[in-house]
Amino acid sequence: MNLSNASRTIHRLGKLSLAAACVAVLLGGPATAQFSGSKRTPDVTRAEQVRTARHGERVSLKGSLTKEVRMAQYLFKDKTGEVRVRIQRELWRGREITAKTLLRLRGKIQSDVRGRFVNVDDVQVLN
């Protein structure tokens, strides 16, 4: 192979890889940005279900906080019972919450030495 043939081969490979990269961007880009949010609705929607649900399962609870147990941990109550929840300070966003405030808490079931709790990743004030 002489120098001019090698140059043409490299030039063709460059065009092919550029074309392949463009196709990959065009086909792959929008598909990954089409959907946001959780992939399925939470199976756990009542405080009583937290005791028997799987670790890591998604939760969406509607009720109110009854008391602060310790820093960032509270007792949450709905019509079916109480469950411990962990809510990080950033999620409050400066809102004033009382025991009469109706909330929707979304998160995952976790456990520690004190038992199961809901690690909250979204707090929505309903009233």
Q: Helical segment tally?
A: 1
Q: What share of the residues does DSSP label as strand, in percent?
A: 35-45%
CA-based gyration radius? 26 Å
What's the shape?
extended
* CATH class annotation of the largest domain: Mainly Beta
Compressed to H and E, one letter per element, the order equals HEEEEE
| Sheet of most strands | 5 strands, mixed, barrel
What percent of residues adopt helix (DSSP H or I)? 10-25%
Low-pLDDT runs: none
CATH architecture descriptor text of the largest domain: Beta Barrel
* Gap from first CA to last CA: 78 Å
Give the strand order, joined by hyphens, for the main sheet: 1-2-3-5-4
Q: Output the CATH topology of the largest domain.
A: OB fold (Dihydrolipoamide Acetyltransferase, E2P)
The fourth-level CATH homologous superfamily of the largest domain is Bacterial OB-fold
| Average pLDDT over all residues | 82
Strand tally: 5
